[in-house]
Amino acid sequence: MQKLDTRAYDQLSLKLLRILRAVYETSSTYKAAQQLYVSQSAVARGLDKLRQILNDPLFVRSNNQLIATPYCQRIYLRVPHLLDALLSTISTQAEFLPEQLTEQYSIALNSTFGHQYGSAFSKAILTQAPNATWCFKTWYPGAEVDIQHNRISYGIQYHNNEFPSTIHQEPISQQTMVMLAGEDHPLAKLQRKIRLEELQHWSFIKFSVVGWNDTYSKIKQLMSEQGLPFKQLAETDSVENLISMLQQHPFVSGGCRSLATKKNRLVELDIEQSKYSKHYWLNACYPRSANHTALIQWLNALTKSCAKQ
């Protein structure tokens, strides 16, 4: 690599830096084009110009992917911070008016958030931004991939260590997972703490959240450690189905503490093992490149407001 002529800096632009970032994070000109909402040829032309300016290949193809050169890796370490800081400054100066939004946006909500806050959340969005087209979806397998490639504008899900680094996870609220049962369940009528050995006589319903990587029941682990049988009768990823089964049958299940309401006729079982309760962060999920945009900041504010209710 030849020494860079400092006059080349004058040819750099934010557009070219955004292309560099997108190609680095997606390892593909096609995916970078989708992320930037431009043609693949525009990304290729920008990449060619960057190579000329920086006098480096920047990316080499390997196994149908574009792999960054060492020089490109060093540049990338600085690019996201530079772009994010600039976008943050610009967004604080520009007035954002939700009613001026006119495009189509898709939002993926995990089942627990959708059940608890989905109605208030969608109402707030439709009221403040009535001129846009909003598509609300329940979180589905691969939603994180669609967020990464901007096919989903915004998502709400529990923190997931397996999500790619190109997805930013913004903490919204912390939820506590407890053991639930219907208000008429015999265990719910006990005026004392429930021992683990008493749970072995009842069937469990496993509540799973699509797209979440914590699939192991804490209560199952504790019972296994004490050599107690764990009878799992069924599994569901529907909050409504879970509530219905617990209301109509003497089953028990893990779930969010906030589901134990008079309306749902569910109660939290007071388990003797203090280690049972687990805490998880509910996060807003969106492309890291959109971190400081006014749209995301507005959606984050709405989400946090609904979660506090």
Rg over alpha carbons: 24 Å
CATH architecture of the largest domain: 3-Layer(aba) Sandwich
Task: List SSEs in N-to-C order.
Answer: HHHEEHHEHEHEEHEHEHEEEH
Number of domains: 3
Beta strands, count: 11
Shape: elongated
Q: Helix content range of the residues, please?
A: 25-40%
Number of helices: 11
Strand content: 15-25%
Helices and strands in order:
Blueprint: H1 14-26, H2 29-36, H3 40-54, E1 59-62, E2 65-68, H4 70-76, H5 79-93, E3 104-109, H6 111-128, E4 133-138, H7 143-148, E5 154-158, E6 167-182, H8 196-199, E7 204-207, H9 218-225, E8 232-236, H10 239-248, E9 252-256, E10 266-268, E11 278-287, H11 294-308
Parallel strand pairs: 3-4, 3-5, 7-8, 7-9
Antiparallel strand pairs: 1-2, 5-11, 6-9, 6-10, 6-11
Helix pairs in contact: 1-2, 1-3, 2-3, 6-11
Outline the structure in words.
The chain is α/β, with parallel strands linked by helices and 309 residues long. It has three domains: 6-93, Arc Repressor Mutant, subunit A; 99-173 and 282-308, D-Maltodextrin-Binding Protein, domain 2; 174-278, D-Maltodextrin-Binding Protein, domain 2, CATH 3.40.190. 39% of the residues lie in helices and 22% in strands. The strands form two sheets. Strands 3, 4, 5, 6, 7, 8, 9, 10 and 11 form a nine-stranded mixed beta sheet that branches. A two-stranded antiparallel ribbon has the order 1-2. The longest helix has 18 residues, at 111-128. The chain is elongated. The termini are far apart.
Brief overview:
The chain has 309 residues and is α/β, with parallel strands linked by helices. It has 3 domains: 6-93, Arc Repressor Mutant, subunit A (Orthogonal Bundle), CATH 1.10.10.10; 99-173 and 282-308, Periplasmic binding protein-like II (D-Maltodextrin-Binding Protein, domain 2, 3-Layer(aba) Sandwich), CATH 3.40.190.10; 174-278, 3-Layer(aba) Sandwich (D-Maltodextrin-Binding Protein, domain 2), CATH 3.40.190. The protein has helices at residues 14-26, 29-36, 40-54, 70-76, 79-93, 111-128, 143-148, 196-199, 218-225, 239-248, 294-308, and strands at 59-62, 65-68, 104-109, 133-138, 154-158, 167-182, 204-207, 232-236, 252-256, 266-268, 278-287.
